[in-house]
Amino acid sequence: MAVATVVESKEWYLAAYAPENVPNSDHLKLRTVNVSLQHDSIPDQHVVLQVLLISVDPYLRSMITGRVGDLYMPPHPLNKVMTEFGMGRVIRSKSSDFSESDIVIYPFCPVAEYCVIPSNFLRKIDSTADIALPNYMSALGVPGFTAWVAIEVIGDPKPGSNVFISAAAGGVGMFAGQFAKLKGCRVVGSTGSDEKVQLLKDEFGFDEAFNYRKETDFNAALTKYFPNGIDLYLDNVGGEMLEAVLNHVNKGARIPISGMMSQYNTIPSERKGVKNLLNLVGKEVKMEGFLCGSFLDRFGEFLQQMETYLKEDKIKSKHEINQGIESFLDSFVSLFSSSNHGKVIVQVAT
Amino acid sequence: MAVATVVESKEWYLAAYAPENVPNSDHLKLRTVNVSLQHDSIPDQHVVLQVLLISVDPYLRSMITGRVGDLYMPPHPLNKVMTEFGMGRVIRSKSSDFSESDIVIYPFCPVAEYCVIPSNFLRKIDSTADIALPNYMSALGVPGFTAWVAIEVIGDPKPGSNVFISAAAGGVGMFAGQFAKLKGCRVVGSTGSDEKVQLLKDEFGFDEAFNYRKETDFNAALTKYFPNGIDLYLDNVGGEMLEAVLNHVNKGARIPISGMMSQYNTIPSERKGVKNLLNLVGKEVKMEGFLCGSFLDRFGEFLQQMETYLKEDKIKSKHEINQGIESFLDSFVSLFSSSNHGKVIVQVAT
Q1: Fewest CB within 10 angstroms: A238, A290, B25, B243, which?
Q2: pLDDT tens column, B323-333
Q3: How many interface pairs between A and B have CB atoms less than 8 angstroms apart?
Q4: Across the interface, which of A62, A71, A260 has its CB nearest the CB of B283?
Q5: B281 and B329: one domain?
Q6: Does A68 contact chain B (CB < 8 Å)?
Q7: Do A70 and B279 touch (CB under 8 A)?
Q8: ipTM of this predicted structure
């Protein structure tokens, strides 16, 4: 029986930096490369992966500005394949820890159909568990863990706390709101369409939600939805919404910041500044930026809690799964147009 | 022998709010009132105080804007005498805890020559201790405690940490820098005159200092003075300096904020916004506003430490003592012109 020794693999690479605006096909391009499956060509402690699922996350935007001054993620090198949190099937292995047909997750997965990667950062999935694979890209992946760190570790709200979540129907926001509800908080979210307002209230159990494209006077909106002020704000957007929130914070409020969607596509000098940081003093507010990678020592604790919640149906997840590696660019762009519902995932293969 | 039953007392009261710019004699006015010394006219658990020293602090500015939206301190009522941290001598007492000629400190002391006040917030000073009285307005008062909370409690720098302090020759800044030096940090301060740059280096042991009125490109200045980045920034000014600092922060940097001198005299809508808060995320920075009043449970610990430092001459203090109650307005205005050296105090009587 003839066994293929080379496989063609389509992959997305960075052709040019995008200092501002939403990236397009001038910046991210698709190309086809050959991946060798021959035993001799695979380095020791490496495996060949057929990529199944790719998580599409906003933080990628900060890696392709071409600036280092943004201080978020380091710039991605030009001409190199993009990487993302992903999942794949081992099809060749030169590691004793992994066998062919193992399903693994990999935090630095090439946005490609196939890849040869070192085995040390792979984590095997128990594919017999009653958890659908896309959950590993959302509830049990970057967005779920980010939401958990924001609410459970940094925010630590009390029952009855008033919690506000921006970009609430996105990957991080939907889980953050549900964590806060499970802690007995009153939770309000902002999102970019009426349909998603309904989603937040009907599916994810938010007490209130509003469409920031319609209720454009954020101060008025927050006066309406937070008559008793805000105790915890999970900031996913920055800019004007953050400024409005700072007019409504209660004493000792906490503001974990996981990212700033409104800031990614603008060069720093043209961003709208936040003018009322003085409010941090009088209300004794703690504002804290974080990267979930710095909390990996608690990832096990998170997984255990999240798996239990999923099995008991206490946390719901919504995925927007786009088919084929070709859909990656559109999937990424959808994050900035507010057209996505829940966690955006690219299904490369099954 | 005839004993006076009434004494004339000059006092500063708020005649009009000052929404912007530096307040002047339209806003703060002096008047003379009569204070009765008659036993029958003094309520129980009250004393009559002859005021000796008044601490002049920037936070007062936020109480006379006439806005509640600033969320700093509550607005001071019109026509009421101003209050400040102060010290006085008990000249009449209807409290068993205090006797005539006791020297006491009082956090809400009227800016007046004499006053009748409740005894419950008074603290008696051991006037036989070898500590000059003005120290109770500075090292052992609001500025010293604010600096201690910022450095010891919130900032918690390690030996070798790179510490930046703005408004460094002011009441809070001079103590904060010395606390950081005692912890083995490298300390740089910014201040508003060349003379104060020398003061910081020669008197208070700062490693470096710069004049922000001359080195007006704050980014360039911080590149020069912080080749290894900033681990801790005690923000006393906000605005442009805070924005520049956020371009130089190291991973996990902390930014305690005790006030924002650059923001007090401007209405919120005209303030320059801080545009690069996204840097909080990538560098995982904690920014925390605080009021020292919320840390009063640790005031005893602070006092013990500070008194030891003062006796061992490990902490130096500089006071600008202006004579007479009449000097209060000019003393307050001097805080905003950068003409003061160290802690500004009004000596009302001896």
Answers
A1: B25
A2: 999 999 999 99
A3: 135
A4: A71
A5: no
A6: no
A7: yes
A8: 0.86
